[in-house]
Amino acid sequence: MTAAVRPPYRVGIVGCGAISRNHLEAFAALPEAVVVAVCDVDADRARSTAERWGIEHAYGSVEELLAAGVDVVSVCTPHPTHEAVVLASAAAGAHVLCEKPIATDLAAAERMVAACDAAGVRLGVLFQRRFWPAAQRLRAAVDDGTLGRPILGHASVLLHREPEYFSSAAWRGTWASDGGGVLMTQAIHYIDLLQWLMGEAVEVHGHIGTFRHAIEVEDSATAVLKFASGAMATLSASTAASPSLGISIRITGETGATAELSEFPEGTDGRVTIWARGGAIESEQVHPADVDPNVDLAAINGQLIPHHTAQVRDFVSALSANDGTGREPAITGSDATAALRILLAVYESSRTGSPVRLNQTATQEALA
Ligand SMILES: NC(=O)c1ccc[n+]([C@@H]2O[C@H](COP(=O)([O-])OP(=O)(O)OC[C@H]3O[C@@H](n4cnc5c(N)ncnc54)[C@H](O)[C@@H]3O)[C@@H](O)[C@H]2O)c1
């Protein structure tokens, strides 16, 4: 049973750092929601955010924000803090939209999903790239048989980060406070796209390394993934590329057709840059010469606002369906847990040197 609330929803935003702007812009675009409170452990930051956006309340803790009475909480804090904020929000009966990654360990992610279920509140997790029109087109091509069931996939995530990226926020670049490197922070979006297009992953073999950045977590990773359907995919990801080549995701379906989705420069809308089907190849240039390949973080985040808005709109409309048909948001806590499970398996595989079987529902026939 899901908690029934009615629009306009009272929204609280927890964490007033870089990505909070995307949430503030997204909710501002929706008549069904109004941001009534923000909070940050840096109370001055909460206050200045509230002033800038004309928000009624600014607090220094999530407890104060929840006591003000909110229907929805957006979680925009560093990775390991997500769990405490989600658990407190669920206990207060608020629906939660949490930034990725859902958590940095599986047990925490599972506790978050279970707590929201038990409290009857919805849990959504941001993977806004699923809302690119081009990503939706690829997914439709899987579903309508143009690609058909995927058999091969590849995600190439070749990004550029300056050293200041890691020094600008104290939590970045360490196992304890970031939970991982390029996999946890950037590539998780594309791991999610792979699983959304290709289905449930059942086995992962991977490696991580740190080559260019002075950080303890990985700046580069590779992995081979096997899916319950028998499909296979490879992943390579790095924040050490200079210049960045952006992201490309290629899917070959059982029809033999292949489609490629490209994001270049990082943060811009994904485009379908290759369609190989029916004896013809349609392609579009992925890396035009007049584009600056190394985009700064504020520009990347700014370009993502329309897709954050699309996901926030979906989340809010899922709540509106509560008292009638009721529905889950497009991207649930369980979806985000599955993406986390894949990337944690890359870490484990890299540590042990062995493939990691994911505890899922694949049959031996499917894996054969
Ligand atoms: N979806 C995307 O594309 C995308 C893009 C960027 C960041 N993110 C995610 O958003 C989250 C935040 O990233 P960011 O870049 O905005 O970080 P940031 O460091 O700029 O901001 C985090 C803010 O949270 C505050 N904070 C820390 N602990 C808190 C707590 N317990 N309660 C309240 N406030 C707290 C900090 O003081 C800071 O102001 C991360 O999970 C990150 O991965 C997602």
Automatic annotation (TrEMBL):
Superkingdom of origin organism: Bacteria
Presence of the UniProt keyword Nucleotidyltransferase in the record: no
Organism: Sinomonas cellulolyticus
The CoA-binding domain, residue ranges: 4-96
Protein name: Gfo/Idh/MocA family oxidoreductase
Transmembrane regions listed in the UniProt entry: none
Keyword list, A-Z: NAD
Key word Lipid metabolism present: no
